[in-house]
Amino acid sequence: MAHYAFITDGIVTEVITGIDETETIEGLDTETWYGNFRGQTCKRTSYNGNIRKNYAGIGSTYDESRDAFIAPKCHNEAILDEATCRWTCSNAEHMEIRND
Predict the structure, then answer these.
(1) Looking at residue 15, what is its pLDDT?
(2) Is the pLDDT of residue 98 over 70?
(3) Long-range contacts: 95-98, Cβ < 8 Å, 24+?
(4) Nearest to 75 by CA among 100, 49, 53, 99
(5) Are strands 61-63 and 68-70 parallel, antiparallel or unpaired?
(6) Based on C-alpha coordinates, what's the Rg of the chain?
(7) 72 to each of 12, 13, 78, 94, how far by Cα in Å?
(8) Is a pLDDT exceeding 50 seen at residue 48?
(9) FRET label pair with 58: which of 4, 9, 41, 77, CA 20 to 30 Å apart?
(10) Contact in structure between 37 and 43 (CB atoms under 8 Å)
(11) pLDDT tens digits, 13-33
């Protein structure tokens, strides 16, 4: 089984468990078939972050240029770590607020 995120206007609206990504449906790869079926962009996501940097959560952003899911920004001081697509902050009061 694999997990798939449905995306509207760059924002994840739902995450489902679907068939394995190596399978096809009606001759189409799974992302394409699920996307066509729902009329939304569909991208596979992974709990362990093996693809697209991070697991997609509802409200996360899908950044097409980075091909990555990015959690909502936790506060204004947070800075996006380009390598991990996770928010970082040097303010000790905010160190507990992270998306891992």
Answers:
(1) 97
(2) no
(3) 98/74
(4) 99
(5) antiparallel
(6) 15
(7) 11, 13, 10, 15
(8) yes
(9) 77
(10) no
(11) 999 999 998 999 999 999 999
